[in-house]
Batch of 4 targets.
Target 1
Amino acid sequence: LNSESSRSHSIFSIYLDVDSTVSGSRPTRYGRVSLLDLAGSENVRSSHSQGVGLKEAGSINRSLFALGQVIKALAVDGRGYASRQLPRVPYRDSNLTKLLSDSLGGGALTLMIACCSPLASYAEESMRT
């Protein structure tokens, strides 16, 4: 466990409002750009967390698991078609996924940048990222 870590997720959102009424050709358009810094998952056994730290680690791991489940439910096959049997997208399983629901589904464009370790000793954890 990183002793300097804040043990929380951070979300910074910029809301965009483009008023096209001057030209009259298009209605007002809205958008949002969100930058997220998600807390890293913790291997509770190896971090030796106790008390509040253990509770925080569990909460973080649950929210990251819920995010993974949402991404899995939204995943499309290699041809760009959603699976025939559309799964329920579990947005309500965590506060994080509730906040991100409109950024992940519909016509949203989403990009993920992951921080992974190049060390072989962290290979398994990096693959889970």
Target 2
Amino acid sequence: VHLSELGSTTTSEVHKKIELATNALKVLRELESSTSKQISKKAGEEIKVLKKLEVKVLKQSELHKKIIEEMKVLGELQSSTDKEISKKFHEEMKVLKGLEVNVLKELKHVETSLRSSRHLLSTEEKTNSESIDWDSDSLPQARKTALAIKKHKE
């Protein structure tokens, strides 16, 4: 209420205007209080939501860090495993090459023994066939010897 308006009014009108202004002020204060409470309530709810989001983000961040650490560990483990596998492979190849050399030596030895045995058998056959008297009674014995030589060859 402006003072210039009060000049032409009576005291009862002034009191009414003051009362109206006071009531209007009370309504405004209640409205302000109500609005302030609503704003505070909304702000509190938003703060709770933001805190929950913050917790989720922190958990995700920690999880992300753990994943990165695990990936590093797995990478190191894979590298280490690859090196071990390569080392074992080379060791096994050396062993296999050694075995191959031994097998080849043994094979040559067996081949030499086989040639020697063939030569002996051939010589023995010649000796046996020359010593058989085909006209004598020892013919059954010659058959036994020939059968024995044949079985030995097989």
Target 3
Amino acid sequence: MSYPSPHETLSTADTAAFQDGRNSSSQKRASFFQDNPARELVPKDPSVHPPLSIASFLGKKLRWITLGGQYNWTDKVYPSEIPPQFPADIASLLRKIFPETKPEAAIVNLYSPGDTLSVHRDVSEECDTGLISISFGCDGLFMVGHLDGAGCEIIRLRSGDAVYMSGQASKIAHCWTVQPNIDIYAQPSFTFFKSAIVYTKRLTLLHLPDRSLHLPKSALEPGSSHVKQVLKAAYQACLPKGLQNGLLDMPIQLSPSSSFHSVWTLFPSSFADDYDQLRPHCKCVSAPLPTDSIFHPNQKYAHHYGIEQVKYAYVEEGVERLDYYVRGGYHPVKIGDEFQEGRYVIAHKLGFGRSATTWLAEDKVIKKLLITLKISTTESVERTHEEQILLRLTKSRSVLPGEAIIQTLLDSFTFSGPNGTHRCLATGAARVSIHVAKDIAYHRLLQLEAARAIASQLILALQFVHAQGVVHGDLHAGNILLHLPPNIRSITREQLYINVGRPDEEPVVRADGLPLDNRIPLKVVFPVLLGLGSDEIKLADSSILLTDFGEAFDSQRTQRFTAHAPVPLSPPESRFADEPLSFPSDIWTLGCVIWDLFGSSPPFETFPGSQDDIIVEHVETFGKLPDQWWSKWETRGSWFDEEGHKNVKESLRQYYGNTSRSWTQRFAEINISRQSKKLETFDPEEEKSFHDMMRSMLVLEPSERASIDDVVRCEWMQRWGLPEFQRMQSALRD
């Protein structure tokens, strides 16, 4: 929902949810901040929204206004009708600063002290146009993550400052908060890397005229060859000398006494007079900023507004984060809740993720049918894409056998709750994932026949997905679910409780002792375990579903440069390549998952498992990275010399031991782990065929990997995988 300003301030869109409470078109106001605090905005639909005063609009919660194109945040599309006109004055400003842009749509966020625009990625729209952010008012902090996900930049923005993010930078995580009154450098030190320097431009319109830089127009163009030189000049002109050395060549670390670092490139001060009215004529008051509450590296909410940092008493591990029960976050669900006019009744919890909670529900229309309800967070980017992808796959007329292995979308609907409007997807119910099955098993291994059947189904499922032009983007064992057994698939809730027990719940208690609000459930529910340990899975239990298409995308319509699979499974090109990800990235991840099905772990796995750790494993296994990637790996010298040979200090080698493992050693560990648990192993003939299949999939260069059709046609699939799949189907019929 968008909250407009009064008409006179910023050309409020007609489609917004509120309108001015009185006829004041003849009165021109200089800014939001000079308006009458008592004046009310009247909701267009009073049954949905209460009146909102200017004081509440500016001071209580983070509010925002939509300008120009009225983006539909529920469906993640722009409506087909002609949008309201984009404000001419703001469009003029943007064109003067960034002449290569065409202003068509914008959001104006209004911050009160302590408000935060939490970490998010601007991936709602299927386009790659640059994103411009201009700051007015109080000082604030703009935080932008590195492309490799290993760190972040923190930039202090003053009124009039502009940040332009284009190319890969337009898709990386970033956030914003009002300037704190504490020194963040009193917290653990931050290391600043050059990645964001290369991909972001910072322009100051209103400040420091004595530090103006006269730059050629070409320096402002996205991708310009002048950008790096301009930034270097800006650093030399604007930063204390003690901070200049090494900024463009190597990481530096700021001491606790250092100030924020910035890039200042000024534009003519004539802009200041026109836009000074947008600055607040009041004292800037800022609240303390606990940095851990602002930057959650794994958070995926898009535009998650107004986070309130409420602390809760300790709850055992195995449940979702309680601080995600906020505006824009999870919907509070309790056992027995009804959805879709009473059709679906919540029976048990199945699990949770960063963008949704998943529940087992009884379908009251189709008696004795259990279904899965995936209830997305209000601001979840993934929900709309996943629904579109599932509909596309469901409507396919393909004759490929993998179609039956894809989870089917049965129903979808939207509902409103205390944390916003949520999208819910109903799919067929399933057992635990292969990941959970391995975790609860004694030795994390599968019987050989079960591993063959599951691997072959996964290959067939991905063949079907790729044939529809879709890249899954998030293959891992947690997204491979076992089918429910027949005795549970079609039963009532009470019969379900007889089989698996009633839900395990624990009360939620605020740490400050205050009562809970309606944004969070009174009790947290632990997921039910519907399944077997991997060591108990027989051939007849091996039927699977490939699920979770929240990260899936059409490679012809969407460019994606960052993989969202777990780091140990992510392809190397997601960190280094300039080309967007496509089908080969799925092939790499598929190879890692299949390897894990037969062994006790994926081929590349370290602790703590950072991106650098995994790249080290890649180099140990395959040798030096391709030259175009090698030069981009800035920290390579910590492990290797320029020839790709291990460069470990003797003291570290003595402490850690020489843990380098070749491809041959890693592959041999599959049979070794099975032998140690007295499980069936590959015979020499199958071992060679399986090895050849793995080697064709796990190739550094994406263009040299096998296609999914190549994998289906390979010897291992034809002689071992598909025959086991057919035997599994016969066992299910029996």
Target 4
Amino acid sequence: MGGENEYDTDFEKSESSDNESEGSSMSYDKNRIEKGLPEMFTQDEISDFGRELGLSKEAHELLASRLKEKNLVEKGVKITVYRDREKHFRSFFSHDKSQDLVYCNNIPGLMNMMKKNIYKPDEWRLFIDSSIRSIKAILLHNTNVLAPIPIAHSTVLTETFRYAEWKHKVSMFFMLF
């Protein structure tokens, strides 16, 4: 035996079943290492690795595919799982088609989905970045320890001035140096 078949055969013989304990899985890993065989990646390890590298969905899928080609993933690892990895967060966002704006409709819920009890409104500030063509709204943590959370985004903007309609007062502030 040689090449790919050796790895496949060894994998089939030593693979722990769903009914066996976690210790059996650890001995499987130890046996592979003792034999000089590469350690296999689990679905979670590939996900964590791709997240640490900041990979896009496409790059994440490519990484998993290449690892699978080299027989470096455990049996049952799904390559296409990264295509819709945002599906758990879709319910927290709405799309206003008239403005082509996507925005978060439940900020506390979104934050709790990411990490329990992390959202305390007084610890976050709103940052708005806009240009002629786009606008983004992002929540930034006051200590910058936690990652920024995007809460609104649009790439199609039209600039309108409707002060008379809304009866807003326009004030000017000039600084002279």
